[in-house]
Amino acid sequence: MKRATIIAKGKVQKGGYRDFVQDSARELAITGYVENLEDGNVKIVCEGEEAKIEDFISDIKVKKDFIDVSQTSVKYEELTGEFKIFKIKYGDVPEELGDRLGAALLYLGATNQKIDAGFKMMGEKQDRMLEKQDETIEAIDRSKDELVTEIRSLREDLKTYMENKFAKIEHEIEGIKAKIGMV
């Protein structure tokens, strides 16, 4: 069992980093606390099995969303066993409220950007679909025009054929009538 005091530097305040650290510590059954420092850094004091402490230190060196841990310093100490759980040490209410509202605004802004990007992507897909639909309608119109032209041509051919056949039949009937004396 070990105890470590860790100082995390970078963009580690007003972005949900303490919550991230607490979740990671609790998953690894590590006890201790995390708190914001006045200089903009975050202090983490933790106790647990040495291997889990090492995993924890790796886990909290994160670049995610609005968190960007640029550097950590670790100081190992003797285990005190003073902690039962891992918790967040909060500052005074106005400061914490400001931090939480600031983080909420950051996440809301990022969410809005993702929604806007999603709508833009959907609009682009819809535009492509409409273009394909227009192309399909034009192809159908061309095919319809070609079909109508072909049918008209066939009708004319059939009409000419039938007129020629009827004329031939009438001529043959006239010949038959003449032979049998019906004229």
Radius of gyration: 42 Å
* Average pLDDT figure: 92
Q: What top-tier CATH class of one domain fits best?
A: Alpha Beta
From the 3D coordinates, which CATH architecture of one domain would you assign?
2-Layer Sandwich
What keyword list fits this structure?
60% helix, six-stranded mixed beta sheet, rod-shaped, alpha+beta, 6 strands, single chain, 183 residues, Alpha-Beta Plaits
Walk me through this protein's architecture.
This protein has 183 residues and is α+β, with helices and mostly antiparallel strands. The chain has a domain at 2-90: Alpha-Beta Plaits. It is built from 3 helices and 6 strands. A 6-stranded mixed beta sheet has the order 4-5-1-3-2-6. The radius of gyration is 42 Å and the shape is rod-shaped.
